[in-house]
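Try this one yourself first.
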């Protein structure tokens, strides 16, 4: 995987994760606490974590380093 593709994947995963986790925390706070606040700290933590881990796993899969195993799949 070239560096340009890796950077595009990292930025894409970061942006999607940040938006989704911000919306989820907003909805959680609205439903449970009745307050319209977002937990930006948690949103950024998840976004950074997933932006590092998911492209790394995809890179390892494409090189043949990680094989996906089916959960509960018999032979």
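Now uncover the answer:
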């Amino acid at each position: 995987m070239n560096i340009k593709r890796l950077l595009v994947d990292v930025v894409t995963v970061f942006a999607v994760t940040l938006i989704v986790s911000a919306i989820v925390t907003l909805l959680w706070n609205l439903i449970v606490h009745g307050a319209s606040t977002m937990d930006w700290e948690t949103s950024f933590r998840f976004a950074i974590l997933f932006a590092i881990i998911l492209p790394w796993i995809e890179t390892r899969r494409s090189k043949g380093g990680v094989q996906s195993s089916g959960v509960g799949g018999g032979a």
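Discussion: Residues 18 and 45 are 9 Å apart (CA to CA). The first helix runs from residue 3 to 33.
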